[in-house]
Each structure stands twice: as C-alpha cells, then as structure tokens.
Fold each of these.
Amino acid sequence: MAGQGILGGALAGLLALPASCDLPRDPEGTLDRLAGGTLAVAVVAPELSADERQALSFLADDLGAELSFVAGDIHSAVDALGRGEIQAVAGAIPKDTPLTDETAATNPVGPERFVLLLRQGENALLLAANRAVADAREEDR
Amino acid sequence: MTAMLDLLPRSRHPGGEDHPEYPPQVREAMARGRRLEWWSLVWLASVIAIMGLVTGQSQAMRTAWIEDCLSLLPPAFFLLATWFESRAPTHRFPYGFHRTASLAFFAAAAVLLSFGSVLIYGAVATLIRQEHPAIGSLRIAGEEVWLGWLMILALAYSIVPPVILGHLKQRPAELLNDKVLVTDSEMNKADWQTGVAGILGILGIAWGFWWADALAAGLIAVSILWDGVGALRKAVAELVDGAPRDLRSDRIDDEALLLGERARQLGARIVLRETGRVITGVLESRDPADLGRITHGLSWRVRDLSWRPLGDRDL
C-alpha cells in the first residue's frame, strides 16, 4: 500500500512537469531548429486556400521562422518530409487522407476541412501547428 | 431453432435451490462472486469507453485498451459458467454441468494467448520499422491541450476500478475454489502495471523518445501472454483429467495429496481428477470398506468417490 502511495505521488509530480518543461518534445528537434530558421512548405495543389495560407503564416510567426513555399508532387513531398528536408506539406489534403500512415496531420482548417501534413512523431511541432490552425479558425469567425 | 434451445439446460435442482450440494458459506461466496463480476462488467465498460475516446495513435494506449476489452471475458465466462452449474443434470448431460467452468477457463486462456502473441508481434514490428507515433491535440477552454495528457489521465483512471475489484474478488475466489475467479482477481490486481506502463510510454513520447510507446506496448503484451500461458496450463491440466491442482500454482492440491497418502497406507491406489471445483475419482483396493476408511474429515469439494477392485497393475 505504501508503495502505491509513493507511485501515486510520483505520477502526480510527473504530470505537473509539462508546464515547466516545454513538453512534448520532438525526437528530431524540428521545432527547435525552426526558431529563426525557414519553415519550408511543399505545395501539392495548384493553389493554397486562404485558410491554409493563414494557418501557415501564423505558425511561421509563432516560431519566428521565415515561410518558404516549394511546388511539388505529393509523393516526393512526403518523402522529403520524412527526411526532414521540408517541414510541412499543404494543398487541399482531405482530413481522411491515407497519408497519415507516414505523416502526422494537423487538425482540419477552413470550411473544406483540409489538413496540413507534418513529419510523423514531431509532436511539439504538431502542437504548435494545431495552435496556429485553431487561431486561423477563430480569425474566420 | 428448437433443437438449439434444447442445448440449454432448463431446470434448476429439485427444491429450486441453486447448488444444493455445496455448504452455505460456499453458496454465499458464489452469490458474492457473481455480484462482483457483474460490477466488474460495468466498471470495465466505463474504463473501455473513456480510454476509447482518447486512444489515438499511441500503441501502448491501444494495447492497454485491448487488454481492458479482454478482461471482460473472465467475468462474462464466470457468470455464464456459474449459471450452467446451477442447472440440474439432464438426460443428455447426466453428469451435470460442473465442467462448463473448465471449458470457459480454457477459452479465456486461448484468447489471452492469441492476443498476447499478436500484440507482441505488433510492438516488435513497430520498433523494427522505427515508426514514430504522432499524438495531436484538442481545443479545450480556448487552450490547445496535447492529447498525451488526456491519455495519461484515462490510463490513471483505468488503474483504479480493476485493482479494487481484484482485491474484493480474492476471498470469494478462495472460498469457492474457483480457478476462473482467482485468475480474474489476479489479472485485475496486476492491471496497475498495465496502466503504469502505458503512462510511462506516453511520457517517453513527450520527452522525445519515440520508442518508449512501442516498448511499453510490448511489455503490456508480454504480460497478457504470460497470463494466457499460466491460465492455459491450469485449464489443460483439468480438461485432460490431470490430478487436482492447487488453486494458484501447478502443485498438486493438498487434499488430493492427503487422499493419496491415506490410500498408500492401506495398500490401495487412488486416481483423482477435478470437474470444475469438485474433486472426484476412484479408489482401487482389495476391500470395498477401504472407501469409508479414507473419506473422513474431507471438505465439500470431494464428492462421489467410487471404488473398484485392485487390478493386476503394479502399485
């Protein structure tokens, strides 16, 4: 019983840590590298919607990064994302895209419910991107 | 359709009482065990629902959720088996239904074994493929909250009901000498390990260790497999008419050992087996009166011992 009390206390302490320890963290450190760097986005549709542009712009501002767009096809873009050469893929990607097997999708943005794709496992960047997406949604209203 | 209904034993024992062959404290333990198992189904359903809401991409979380779904089986099997046991023997099943518990136990063990194996494979495959789990976030009260924290809360909740129920089930399980109930009680009591493993897996992801999740999932799967192996050994021992085993281990039951010793002292031989919670068997000796000489001071579990003349086999 005492052991279980100690365990409970340890767990409570651990759960209180995130506020002070900027958790979650990226395994590959993507978010940290973006600060003052370039947020490279592959655009896989002829044009980005206004909502997608706004979400990406908010994300770049939050990170203090410069936004840069690169045109390309979806498969090379996902490969480059997986290698860390680019940080996001955008362009009319639907919420139920099968690409979430290899990438991480943000929460949906805009009335069309498009998502942005990020490198799988980079959860700090995903959290920051979801914040930007939510801010973009609020701007719309 | 009516042919299928015929498979279900209809009548209770004469006099309407359930289990007239058991003493009152055993019947009370049975009623208490059944109540606790109904409560288990309710509480486990709540755990499964809450965890199902936040599962997402964490493999450890999914594995813990599957384990919670699997832990619905022992209570369900116990309730089913004890219901069958309460029915009177029929023309087609003249020995009655004591063995339904053994069958239920075997089925539960086989399920645990299969799931444990599949889940271990899944965890190892994830580690080999180096898949990094993506865990998103939810908007709550104007703040973007990482789903990992919600998963940890759900896992923390999942620890509480099974551990409490597991401790409560221990006493009725021992009084009833019920293998299904005792296995269920031990699995429940050990459930805190699953919750903690899941939480550590998600904390690992939070710290950037992508492999923590799959590792935790693998450990949870190993524990499921281990439970399955232990249960399967006990279930098989009983179904192939092995000697009666102790409730919690693979040792031979103390009462069976005592009967064996008494038989040896008379120069006789006794073969015993278990049918559900009852011990039964045959005494082989030269004198039928030997049966009366060994059956004093035995518990309610030993029933229907018979006698046959000693054959030409060596003792």
Amino acid sequence: MADMIVSVSPHLHSKDTTRRIMLDVVIALLPALVMAVVRFGLHALALALVCVGSAVAAEALSRKIMKREQTVGDLSAVVTGLLLALNLPATLPLWMGALGSVIAIVVVKQCFGGLGQNFVNPAIAARIVLLLCFAGAMTSWQQPGFVLWNDGVTGASPLAALKEGTTEGLPALTDFLFGLRAGSMGEVCALALIAGGVYLLVRRVISPIIPLCFIGTVFAGMLLRGGVTFALYEVLSGGLLLGAIFMATDYVTSPITPWGKVIFGVGCGLITLAIRLWGSLPEGVSYAILLMNIFVPHIEKLTLPRPFGARKGGKA
Amino acid sequence: MKEHPLTSVAKNRGGVHVAYHKNTRYMTAQRMPVPAEVVLPMQQSIGAPCTPLVQKGDTVKVGQKIGDSDAFVSVPIHASVSGTVNAVGPVRLAGGSVCQGVTIASVGNMELFEELHAPAVTNLEELLSAVRESGVVGLGGAGFPTHVKLRVPPEKHIDTLIVNAAECEPYITVDNREAIDNSWDVLSGVYTLKEIMRIPHVVIAVEDNKPQAIEALEKIAGRDNTVDVMRLKSIYPQGAEKMLVYSVTGRRVPDGGLPADVGCIVINIATVAFIARYLKTGKPLVSRSITVDGTAIRNPLNLRVPIGTRLADIIDYCGGFTKEPEKIIFGGPMMGVAIYNLNAPICKQNNALLAFEKADYKTEHACIRCGRCAAACPMSLAPTLLKTLVSAQDTEEMKRRGIMSCMECGCCAFSCPSGIPLVQYMKLGKQLLREAKK
C-alpha cells in the first residue's frame, strides 16, 4: 500500500487534451495546405514548412531562455505557424515568413505569458506586422495554376474588383470553390476550408456560432449592397472563410460564452463589412478579428450567464 | 391518465456524459460476515459530533445507542455489532480528519439490543423524533441528518416529495438494488412520509440507464397519480439536489436556498426504504449497502456491511486486490475522496469503495480558454474565470460570480483538456471567502 495517488476529485477525466485539440486543428488545415501546394507549387510548401519550423523553434527557444516549462509539445506553435503561412501570399520570400513566425510566437504570444495569455491572435498580429513592413511582397498575388515553384506571374486579388462594386472579369464562383483565384495561399480553396471546418465541428473542437455569425453578417451586408451573386463572391473572396473558421474561433482570443460568441462573430462581420465597403484597404478580415480580440474580456463580462438559481439584479 | 413512467419536465444545462460502469447492477447486496472489530466515529454526518455514551469494557448489543448529542443538527450513533467496547478515543476518518470514536470487538452473534421496539408514529412530531432516533442520515452520500431535512418551516408549503434514485455517479449501484430488491420498503416509506407530512405528490426519479429499477418501481407504484416513477436522462450530475428538482418540476432552487423554498423535499431512495423498515422493526441504522468495484478489485460486489467495518476487511472479503492499486476512492469517482490506506471505517453516508490499478490522471497545462468547463457547469458558472479570481484572491468578485453555488460535482475538471484541478480551485476559493467574512 505504498505510493497511492490522493488527488482531488473528480477521479475521471475526459479524453480531450490540449495536444489533441491542436492536432485536430492541424488536421483540419491540411486540405487547405494541400490545395495551396496544388495551386501555387512547391514554394508554398516550402513557405509553410519554414513558418511552422520557425514557430516551433521560436517557441522552444523562448521557453528555454525564460527558463519556463517546455510547452512545444502542445503543438500550439505548429498551429500558429501553419495558420500564418496560409495567410501569406505564396510568393513571399521564405525569410519574411520566418520573421512573421518569430513575431507571432515571441512578441505576441510568449511576451504575454505563453499559451492562453495572449490577448490577440498571434498569426493575425504577425500577418498584420508583415503587411505593414512589406506591403509590396504581402500584396503581390500569384495567379494560381499548375506551377512547380514560384513563376513570378502575379495579378490582382478579386477583392480589388469587388471594391469597385463589380464582379465582372472575375473567375466563375465555382473556380473560387476549387481555389482558382488569386489570394493568400491558404484562403483560395473554399471547399478545403469548409471541409476543415466541418471536421472541427464534428470533432466538437469549435462551436459553429462564431463562423456562422461572422460569415452571415458579411453575407447579409453584401446582399444589401449588391445582390446574391455579389454577396457570394464577397464571402468566397479574401480571407473570410479562413478567418471565420480558423482564426476567429481561436479559443484564447474569443469569448467562452455563447452570447459572447454571437457578439464577437457579428462584430467581426461588421468591421469586415465596413473596411471592405468604405475603407481604403481591399481586405478587412484580419483587422476585424484583431479589433474584436481586444474587446473579448469586456464581451465576456457582459455575457456571463447568471448562476443557476440566482435572482435577477440580486446577489450574483 | 398520465403516461408512465413520467419523463422530466425541464432539461438541465451543462453536465457531462461519463461511462457508467454499473458492473454490479445485477448483484443483490450480500451480507458480509461479521467483522472482528468495528470502529464507530462520533462524527458520521454533517452537524455536531456525538458524545460517547459507553466506556471501555462495556458490553454492547446491536442497535444500542453508544453516542448522542443535544444539538439539533445531529443524530445518535448505535452499536453495529454485539461485543465489548475495546477503546473510546480519537480515530482517523478516511478523509484524514480525526474525531472521537468507539471501537467494539465483536463476539460474532449479532445479538439485538432488547430495548428496541417499533416506534408508534401517528403524527409529524412523532415521525421526526423517530427518524432522529433511528440515526439515519442521507444515505446517498451527503450525510445530512434526515430529520432535519424533513422538518420544513411551517410557512413553506411542500407539494412534491422527490425520491432520489438517479444514482448518476459511475460504478455505484446500491440505490439501483434498493429499488429492485426492496421496492416494497421504498413504497411503504413513500406512503408513510406522504401521508404524515401531507405531501400531495411523490416522484421517484431514476436515470434511464437503470431499466430494471424503473420496471420494479413501476410495477408497484400507485395508479392514483399521486406516486409516480420518472425516467430521467442519464447525464451526470442528474442526481444533484438542485438539478433533480429542476428536472422533475422545472423549478429553480434559489441561490443559497433549499428545495423546500420551491415546494420540494428530495430524499434518497435507500433512506426512504430504511425509514420504512425502522418504523416496522425499531432497528436503528447499524448497517448499509455499498458497492465495491474498480479495476483493482478481484470480485466486485454489492455488500451489506455493519457501519464501522474497516475498509481492509471489506477488500479482503472481495478477494483482495488484483494488483497494487494506484488509487482507492471512498465514494463515486466524480465526487469521492481518494484515500491513502484502508484503516478507516465505513460511515453512514458512504456508498462505494472503488480501487483502480491505474489512476486516471492528466498533467496540468495552461488554460487555453476553450470554455468546456463553463459549458459543462450545471450551475452556469465560468470555472476558468473563477480560477483566475481565486488565484488573485479576489473574494468580492468570486462571490459576485457565484462561487458559493458550486457544488463541486467535478464536471469542469472532468472536461478540462488542460488537466486543471478546477474543483481544487473552487474549494480554495470558498475557503478564502469564508475566511474573508470572519
């Protein structure tokens, strides 16, 4: 009767682990990654590997330097690196991707205390930093096709045309589903993103509230602006699906309450609408998520449910 | 005519699905041979401890009162074997605390105390005093003196008596067996309480993973629509008092209040059956049924044991361990206490003894704010937020966010992917709040 464990109840636990959840997100992103390589060639794969590798290295090193528990095994750095890569143009020089990963992990995540403590999404913050630093490289969109490496042929993103209020000259909507349009490497193939989203829903990793509210708000707004076809183009363009399914649902930087998720999703949608319709930038998904990230603590406080049996207005 | 059995009227928020492991559900409780020695702690229930009424060397018989207290919230303690008092002094309970206790060496013949007689009960006062004298406390695990629970303030009108046979904790099947093996005792107890306390409606609530129990109760429950069986969804913690009241009646017990505040009394099924037997025979609470199970137990069983039987004797009777256990739990796996040796005795409210070869254990990592704890909390709290407040010792905000509503059911910690011991934080937070009040 030696060495018995006398930990606190409960003595049973669910099978969920942080690592498994992160692994599920990676699995859900694989279709988008595969389609990125199919559409943009091996340079896209190289960029993804560099981003993931440098994110993992940055995580491991910074934990080591800070003399903190090593957390690289929780796979959250893999998710951040992969998400960042999928948010970049496939033609971006590899070193810029690496720099982005280091910014995401070291500045945005570890400087605030590591996993769970960052108040904005690391991949989104890093993408925005890269966009501000390397505006040219970050907005030069390779035309998708069957290329082996980086053929240097670039063109305008569909959002530029949509900004003018027209869908003329754009590829057919079905091409958007299969990734035949210019854009960041992970955002172009809508079907791959939706498949990943369905996987996350089935695995109960994410709740559908944020993606539905986010995408629904953008769709509704654009419907008023230009009708169904226009709204569908808007939904399938830019980083909306990638952002709504994979970035806005980041646990750490979104509310835990159901009504909080509604406010967060609708808020993201409204800001995206405002930027796309009236802003000077063509795309607003990243900024929308980043801004809403900052409001999360307040949204959460406002929407915490009353404890069971607590009286309205009374003591808690 | 109502549809029988009834189904719940309201759906609980939160809760978790736990594997049931009701391995012993077909096993009628066996009577264990009389142990050589029993230890009867003077603190076996919520409330004031008893004072020993016997001295070393005294001869006692089964059912003889050996401890009592003048306090209202307390019940007497009775000898559970016949024999000689070996010692009166401090004993250690399973949880680690120490209290006064009486140790009795058994002579093995289990001779009944001559002065026991069935109490004459014709009105509420007589019923309550008989229930107190019987020494019964909530046998479902909480251990609250039953006579206190049944003494409803006169200004509160009770319209529903809920007999709790939900038994939502995994592994435990003694309430299930009570419903099947002693259904007539259950029914007799139900009608006695109903008539003397003038409660119009009784609901016997059972989770739907116990079809045998539902069937047995359905067969004998009255067809006059005043005693009904209700089939509840099997979701932990369905049997928690406030959850049960909500499922059965749709009423929310107010924060800090009791079921009586919404016209209900909740009483465990084994407690009801015991009261019926006591009123018939006058034999006080000297034995109880427990489930002995878990991967490390050679022969899992339901056992009827004298109160005060040492855990080691029970394990021996069940064939010992298959392998050195990593964890032994007194009670169910969701709310039970992990113990570190087998010296402690069975007390009145203990319903299970579980031993596991492997402890189910998760290493603690940082919170990723996934919100699973909040989604699982049946009291609609946000455990992850409360944890932060407890770490910051912000007692005011903890209270505002409802930490005192936490019943430590463990749904939050069960669902946490980061292995955070959230129940520990809740316990600590409540303690901080109590200290801040002083």
Amino acid sequence: MSKSAVKKDAIKVFLTSSKLDPTEGIDFVKCEEAGAVIMFGGTTRNSFEDKKVSDLSYEAHEKLACRSLERIALEALDKFSDDGKDTLIHKVYLAHRLGHVPVKEESVLVVLSSTHRQEGWKAAEWVLEKIKAEAEIWKKENYNDGTSSWKENENSSVHKKN
Amino acid sequence: MVTIEYFGPSKDFTNKSIESIQITSLLQLYEYLEIQYTKEFSEYVKENCGITVDYEYIDKELGVEFNEGDEICIIPPVSSG
C-alpha cells in the first residue's frame, strides 16, 4: 500500500446532522502502538455574555469543509511525527455536526491516538485551532429571547486564503 | 453567466443562497454586490471573505477573470466548533 493510502486509512473525517458519538471516535483511534487517546468535544454552552442561549445551529460548505478537515487530519499525522522517523500520532477522527445542536451536546469532536501523551495533547490542541481557523462551517447562536447572531472565530483566516 | 453561492452570514445581506449573474471579473463582482445589495456588503466581501472559483480559493489581490459557467462561493469568516 502506498504511503498516502496508509495515511488516509489512519483518518476519519465527516460532517453529520446526527448526534456525535465520542465512543465511535475513541474506538476508531485506539491502536496497539498508541499509549494515549485524546478526546476533545466542543459542547453548546447555555449562555453568551448576558444572553441565554437556547441552541446553536451550524451550516457548512460541505465539500470545502470536508476537504479542510481531511487536510488538517493528514497534516497532524506528519507535523507531530519525530522528524519523519517515528509515527507519534497514529489515528485522527474529526467530526462536526450540522443543524441544531442543543445545550450540552457536542458540535465538534477531535479524537486522536498518540504514542506518548505529550504529542497527543499538543496535536489535539493544534488540530482544534486549525479547524476553528479554516473549516468552512458557520455557527449561529439562537437565544431564548428569539433573536440570533452569526459568530466569527477570532482566528478565522479564510479571507487570507488563496 | 456565473453562479454565485452565498454562505453563512453573507446570506443575511442577500436573502438568497444562490444566483446566476453576468459578470466576467472580480472587480465586476464587487460592483454588482454594491449596486444590488449595499456598499457595506461589497466591502465586507472584499475585506473579510474568502472567494472560491470552482472550489479553489482565489487571490483577491490579483485581477481575477471569470469564465462562463464558473461557480463562485462567498466564504465569510468561519465559526466552527
């Protein structure tokens, strides 16, 4: 199998309107060579400043967003390797939910396995920040008073892309 | 004709997600958005948004020409997670 085919087997990225399942992500990334599994779930919080949030809703340019998630996952496998010698990040699972996401439920999952915990923590944080900067997905906060507001991530970098 | 697709908050300005228009350049796109919607929206797209042509981001600094049938997407600042 070619190197790129092996790498693509090590990642799973997708968008879905269904409830996200952290256990599915954990089961996907676990492997014999890994000593650590890192799981981050971004969940809907019930407030923003002094406003009560009823839920969040997400939409995406699905083709671009999936391409971005795949690129980020593949980059994570390479970036946190040991100068290309040892595989340190083994598998990456990225999932983002679309549509309405109620309070306490996950909108995004970042799950990965690593040889040691150090690179696992670093890689998971890096992946999440890249997703928030680049994935072509938009969030709307819906408030209890019936109003709503589109959000922008501070680190969004799409306007600089070419 | 080219197709313009609007995503996320850009749809609040246009009240539509897709349209076909007769333009041949990025400059004409900005002019169209100003005339059809508002100067504010045209500036928002120019300063804050990414623009893709056939799913590839363009360099907005360059003078981009569009071809018949091009699919253009307006990509506002993102907010995943």
Amino acid sequence: MPNHHRTSTPLPPRFAMPSPFTWGVALVFLALFIQGVMATNLTLERLLRGGVNLVHFIGRAFPPDLADLDVLAWSMFETLNIAIVGVTIGVVLSLPFALLAARNTSPTPWIRSITRLMIATMRTIPDLIWALIFVVAVGLGPIAGVLAIVMDTIGFAARFFSERIEEVHPGPSEALSATGAGRLSVIGGAILPETLASMTATSLYSVEKALRSAVTLGLVGAGGIGVELAAAMRLFNYDRALTIILVILIVVIGFEQLSSQIRKRVI
Amino acid sequence: MKAISVHNLHKHYGQLHVLRGLTLEITRGECVILLGANGCGKSTLMRCLNGLTSHDQGEITILGDSLTHLSKPQLRQLRRKVGVVFQQFNLVQNVSVFQNVLYGAKGQQRFGLLASLACLATHELRERAMASLERVGLAHKAHADCRQLSGGQQQRVAIARTLMQDAEIIIADEPIASLDPKAGKEIMDLLLDVVSERRLTVLCTLHQLELAQQYGDRIIGMKAGQIVLDTPRQQVALATMQQLYQGDVRVDQISPPTVDNAALPTS
C-alpha cells in the first residue's frame, strides 16, 4: 500500500530555486543577446539574401577549375611544410617551458610564474595575430607562418605538457631522488617516461591544429595555400577557390585520419 | 662508528608536531624493526634519514656524516649510502624492469638526463643491474613492463634497485604492508638474506609483532614522535606491544623485561 510519509525527514525539493547570482547572470546574458541581434542587424530578410548569394557563389564555383592543380599542390605542400616545421620547433621548445611551469619540476616559484605567464601570452594571442606581427618583422612568406605556428604550438602544447607533468605520481620521482639522483636525472628517469605517451598524443593534435591554422595564415600573407585562396576569392575566381578548398579538405581530413590512427597505437 | 645516529630530532608539519625530540642510535650491521601505530611519525623519521624530508631541529648523523646543513651535491652523495624501500614500490611505469634496476645507479652517473633518455649506461652498470635482478630471482622478467608484475615481484625489483645503488643502509618503510602474508614473508626473507650477505644496516617498519621478532635483532617502538620502547627481540612482551598500539607505554615500564612471550603465537 503506498504510503506518502515513509520518512520522518522531508524529501529535498525536485527543483532548487536558482540563486540571485544565477538570475543575474541569466538576465545579463539575455540582454546582451537581444542587444546583439539588433546591433548586428540579424534579420530574416538579410539571411535570405545571404542564402541567395551563396547559391550564386556555388553556381559560379562549379565545375571546379582544375587547370593549375600542380601549382596548388605545391602551395598546399608549402602549407604542410609550415605546419610541420612550426610544430616540431614548437613542441621541442614546449618541453623546457612545461618543465619550468610545472609545480613539481620548476626550480623556484617565481620562475614558474614567469613561465606560466609567457605560455599564457602565447596562447591568448590568436595565431592570425602572431602571423600579422611576424609578417611585419620578417616580411611576407612562409617564415612568418612558421614563427606564428611555433608561438601557437608552445601556448597550446606547453600548457598541456605541464598539466600532465603535474599529474605524475610523486612516488617514483622520490625513489630516484632517494638514490642520490639529481633533478635532471629524476626528470629524465621518472617524469618523462610516464608522460611521453600523453605528450605524443598532444603533439599529434598540435600538428592537426597547426595544419588548419597554416591554411588560414596564408590569408594574411604568411605563405602557403591560404595566399592562393585569398587571391582567388579577391579576383572572383570562385571555381579556382573551390578547387583550393577541396584540396585543403582532402589533405586535412587525410592527416586527421592518419594522426588518430597513430594516437590509438600510442595510448 | 654508528650507522645511524639521531639526536633530539624535531619535525613539524604546520601545527602538527610529528617528531618530538627523538633520539636513536643504530650500530652497523644491526637489523632494527620499528613498530608503532599509524601517524606516530615512523614514516617521517624514515624520510628524514634519507633527506627526503628536512627536519626542523636536532642532529642526524649517517655513517659519521652529519645530514644537517649539507649542500645539494653533498646531500646526494650521502643519499647514495641510504637505500629506501617503499610500501608502494615506487617503480617507474612505462619502462622495463631492467631499466628500473639501472635507475638505482642514477646517483653514480653523470649527465643523468641524457643517460636515462638514451639508455647510455655503461656495460659494467648493465651487468651489475642484471646481477641484481638475478639475486632477487627476477632475471627472466628483465624485459617485462612493471605493470605486468605482481606486488611481490615489484617489491623485488625495488630491492634490486637498492642493491644497484650500493647502499650501506637500507630504510624500508612498511615494505610488506601492500602484500599478502606469503609474499610479505618472502620479501622479508629476501631482504634479510641480502642484508646479511652484504653486512648492511637495516631500519624497517612493520606492523606484525611476530615478524618483528623473527627478523629483527632489536625492536623499537614509537609513539607520538618519540621512542618509547627499545629492546632486544627476545625480551619484547605482548603486553607492551598492546600498549604501544593502544595505551601509554614507557621504556622504564618494560625494564627489567617481563617476558610474556608465552602469550605470543609461535611461528
């Protein structure tokens, strides 16, 4: 027989009343959203017109122009070069940054703070802005792209490396310290072996990420296939642009497949 | 010369006064078993003896050398003489059993970072590592991954690592607390065999009185950061042991010894 008062303690309510803070955040968010829709002039009419333009673009883009495929292949290859060189340098530099930034391997707290600040700066500034800065510094071309990727990779990989290093179980490191091993011995003997698999996975992910950003870096003149894409769009060669987009799609998807296969084996 | 000499040792963790004026002397070649309830400061004492934890006040002398006010290289030099066996074995995962034993020589190698990255150990070191593995009966597991080993086997590897270290003193902090009784006895047998072959000095914490009596030359009881019991193994009484783990006990209460061993389980 159902009994509605089986416990002497009252049951907790099914729905908790949101706190005043939650109400406040929700209201501010809603206000910003409505104001944003009005300010960006986001109307159904504009969206429809955009759709029509898109159909025009696609109509003019078909069939893709395969005339200069060898030239495009070479500039795609240059993009690949930028990504691989940039990521390799970036990952190699990430390791010392990560060791200096991790709580358990950093020599002093102030070195740790400075390193973390540097990594955060590299991460917070978007890759496109790094590319703009380096185009000013070293001129148009792939070197600016490589440098931008290096910065972006350190900001990303050093952070994940250092977080992984901090998660390492302290026992083995202590055991090595107890044998009289120095700091570098402990890092090489106990910390790197335990973090290597995860660092490899992070590095592979960095390559994927770098490949995607190397494509867009060309848009600001930092070399590679992005330069071709920007030119084709500006000259209304939509059929050529479509070919470029397809080439990018094939290479990026191919590389992501390859990298996820490697990752499966490593972890 | 005493192997270990501790005088008036104090250690605080924040507000917690863990070691309270502890004084202890251990002669060379002695096998001392340390008993005491959890939280009485046993592990802290063990860690202080290897310099893994620094003490606040008092004097520790290892084989005639003071552990106070040492530079880092001097401390590392001293640590090489004090091998530590941990409850959780503290082997480095992701490297082979053989490599873990080699790590015992880290304190003797220069350029430790490179040595561990590229496996640059000399032929002589590699031979010694294999000999240590043979001594603990695990030569056939040299290439195995540590995670494939049982707890008892992992502790054997840890003992091989201290053999590699060429330590003169072995500090074993509850070496069998994570093992089943059979594996625990095997490990204690192995440890004591190795110790008597090489005439090492041992300080080992245990929780089993019968094992303490079987293996120790001398039994020490600790309570609230002080030594409260210090007696040759024949003279320890069950009643005093019960007091050590529950009630109050003082050295003067058990001297002259009231032999109560009839109440003990004979093994």
